Amino acid sequence: MKAIGVEPGAGRPRLLDVPRPEPDEGEVLVRTLRVGVDGTDHEVIAGNHGSPPAGEDRLVLGHEAVGVVEDPNGTGFARGDVVVPTVRRPPPSGPNDYFERGAADMAPPEATVERGIDGAHGFMSEYFSSPAEYLLSLPSDLAEWGFLVEPISISEKALELAAASRSSFEWDPETALVLGNGSLGLVTVAMLVDDFEVYCLGRRDRSDPTVGILERLGATYVDSRETPVSDVPEAHEPADLVYEATGYAKHAFESVDALAPAGVVALLGVPEPWTFEIDGGRLHKDLVMGNKAIVGSVNSGPTHFRAAIERLDGFPSWFLDAFVTTVAPLESFESAFERTDGTIKTAVAFDSL
Ligand code: NAP
Ligand code: BGC
Ligand code: ZN
Predict the structure, then answer these.
(1) Model confidence pLDDT, tens digit, residues 317-331
(2) Proportion of the chain above pLDDT 70, given as a percent
(3) Mean pLDDT rounded to a whole number for the chain
(4) What local confidence, expressed as pLDDT, does residue 341 receive?
(5) What are the C-alpha distances in Å from 291 to residues 84, 165, 259?
(6) Which atom belonging to ligand 1 lies closest to the Cα atom of 246?
(7) What is the CATH number that goes with domain 154-296?
(8) Which of 14, 37, 227, 260 is the most buried (most CB within 10 A)?
(9) What is the largest CA-CA distance in the chain?
(10) Does domain 2-137+316-349 have CATH number 3.30.310.250?
């Protein structure tokens, strides 16, 4: 069967011919419908993040998938069920405490592998198999957009962790600053606009389509070339919540300046090593005297996937149509990996329902 994979360092994905999976006991065979592409895929393709399975020289890409059950193989699923897989699986050494507690998303990198990213093949193939416990059912009317469940779940988790860090008092956040108008930033703006006054920071001209979308959602665009993160409170207002989705390492620290007292920063980006100077003393003091918090958040678990399915169902259809700019058929999968001016969220379509 056909798959899309990458050899580390090759810099671009290519079509592979791989055997169709034979599901083991407890595993389901899934016919792939669509698989999304995000910044992490580009980092994997560039050779900056992740790796193929141990002993292999190439990785089948794809971690944002939706598919339809081809062979339930004696599990509780039925042929034809629409499903979305989670990303993390036990490492080659076997399940550990994190998996046994149902908290794989809280595991450190060495205690897990990630399908399509790190140490395990992904879902960009005509069929994939997965233990039933790592699949969630999706209403079939959402199948077309199901590849968005995983990225939305990432933000569901990060927002939960951020709120949990403020749970010792009645936190009543009103203002959110989302850093990054890429696919993760923009979908998070869509999640926040009902409950927050939202600012979204990017570095593109106002003619960029993401600016039109975030303004139509009711958010305010901030151009980081004119207003650096640290200046947002003066130019606009301090933020109770900063959600970082740029992967630009300085933002982790500048965000503290952008916070209102008792605010929280959620860091999502996965930057490269980068040495730069910061005033650590001022930062430390501001965090303490302002009761501010910084939380890092990676991956997501089944509860976040379930919340994401509900969230997806509530998104206006105009947003989905504008946000997903490319759904490339397998024959021209390359266009799902191109980053042109108009590109926002892309996916590869392997099949339809
Ligand atoms: P993306 O599409 O590459 O988006 C990143 C966005 O940040 C781009 O729009 C980029 O602008 C913008 N940006 C970068 N530096 C900036 C700066 N200095 N000022 C203003 N804007 C800046 O990637 P994504 O899929 O949205 O993901 C965002 C980050 O989150 C990536 O690092 C990814 O690895 C990470 N991520 C983490 C998780 C997790 O579980 N923690 C999950 C998914 C993604 P331009 O396009 O104009 O350059
Ligand atoms: C994926 C997560 C993964 C993270 C780190 C993100 O793009 O959506 O599932 O844990 O990258 O590899
Ligand atoms: Zn991702």
Answers:
(1) 999 999 999 999 999
(2) 100
(3) 97
(4) 87
(5) 39, 11, 10
(6) 7
(7) 3.40.50.720
(8) 37
(9) 60
(10) no
Q: What is the pLDDT of residues 253-309, one digit of tens each?
A: 999 999 999 999 999 999 999 999 999 999 999 999 999 999 999 999 999 999 999
For the chain, list residues with pLDDT below 70: none
Backbone φ and ψ for 207, nearest 5 degrees, come out as -75, -10
Q: Which residues contact 128 (CB under 8 A, 6 or more apart)?
A: 21, 29, 30, 32, 65, 67, 85, 122
Which regions of the chain carry the CATH code 3.90.180.10?
A: 2-137+316-349
Task: Give the DSSP letter of residue 97.
Answer: H
So what's the pLDDT on residue 8?
Answer: 80
DSSP 3-state assignment of 156?
Answer: helix
Q: Which ligand is nearest to the CA of 343?
A: 1
Q: Which two tokens stand for residue 105?
A: 């998303």
Q: Where are the CATH 3.40.50.720 domain residues in the chain?
A: 154-296
> Percent of the chain beyond pLDDT 90?
99
Which residue type occupies 288? V
First to last CA, the chain: 18
Cα 341 from chain centroid (whole Å): 21
Residues with CB under 6 A from ligand 2: 38, 40, 63, 87, 114, 117-118, 150, 154, 298-299
Is ligand 1 within 6 A of the CB of residue 6?
Answer: no
Q: Which tokens belong to 16?
A: 């592979």
Taking each helix axis from N to C end, the angle separating 183-192 and 209-216, rounded to the nearest 10 degrees, works out to 10
SS3 206: coil
